[in-house]
Amino acid sequence: MSRFLLTRTLDEHAAETALRDDVLHGLTTAPKTLPPKWFYDGRGSELFEEITRLPEYYPTRAEREILVARAAEIAAASGARTLVELGSGSSEKTRHLIAAMPALDLYVPVDVSESALAGAARTLQAEHPSLRVHALLADFTKALALPDSPGPRLVLFLGGTIGNLLPVERAAFLRAVRAMLSPGDALLLGTDLVKDEGTLVAAYDDAAGVTAEFNKNVLAVINRELDADFHPGDFEHVAVWDAEQEWIEMRLRARSELSVKIRALDLVVPFEAGEEMRTEVSAKFRQERVAAELAAAGLELSRWWTDAAGRFALSLATAA
Questions:
Q1: How big is the CA angle at 170 (ends 159 and 23), to the nearest 5 degrees?
Q2: Burial letters for 114-153: b for 16+ Cβ neighbours within 10 Å, e otherwise?
Q3: CA-closest candidate to residue 161, choices 39, 75, 17, 33
Q4: In this predicted model, which residue has the larger pLDDT, 92 or 235?
Q5: Do the Cβ atoms of 234 and 257 come closer than 8 Å?
Q6: Mapping DSSP to helix (H, G, I), strand (E, B) and coil, where does residue 187 land?
Q7: Residue 1: pLDDT above 60?
Q8: How far apart are CA 293 and CA 23, in angstroms?
Q9: CA angle 276, 160, 204 (to 5 degrees)
Q10: What pTM value is reported for the model?
Q11: In a 3-state reduction of DSSP, which class is residue 120?
């Protein structure tokens, strides 16, 4: 019997439909917005990997530091036999945790990229020949039906990705995760922490301009997929810290008055000179805020780990 199984819950037109809906809604409201998930085509994924290696961008290194140092503690605290990872991507960081879980029977990666799921499964099963992988080609922001699996289960949501969700979206997401959990199951959540403004802004506006190119890649995606005529040079990358909301906003600012044709939507989008379009929110957290948001969803914070510099946190929460 194959140790790799892939279940598809997205139809072949799901991404196209979602992009059309997001662009039509986001570019016809004020202020204009686009969801950050559309950064990540092939080129966008390459750029993000480059970002994670930049000296200014600490979150990936800080989270990996925690996973390497605390994997055995996380494994012992969860006792997991099934590992479910939401937005798994390459599963690169997860390798450290899997290596510390000798009793693990099943890994369930969830992602919208079939190639990423298959590639990660090949790598992990080469390292752990007895590991079964049941991949789900799915959007983790939608309702998920997990495969039957041995408990306890540990659900992973790493990378600080929860910070890309607005507060109402975070609340809905955490409630949906709680609904997945049975007694004895747990959630391991990665959150970037509040720190000084200079460090935060630099992480999203690096000196080499890689994040600026990454931000503008959303325009290339819309051009290609929806036959639009965005010119990236017409826009300036902006990263600002909102101290009241405690989040970084990435924006694209029109350098002059212009209009953009999106032919697939039969849409003309005007921009005033200096008008900004929000492309990402990245919320930063404090321990008490994480605990409160988990509690509101019926989850109880039980363990809290940070890197040595206190920049990033992994928290373990169980069904309350």
A1: 85
A2: eebbbebbeebbeebeebbbbbbbbbbbeebebeebeebb
A3: 39
A4: 235
A5: no
A6: strand
A7: no
A8: 29
A9: 40
A10: 0.94
A11: helix
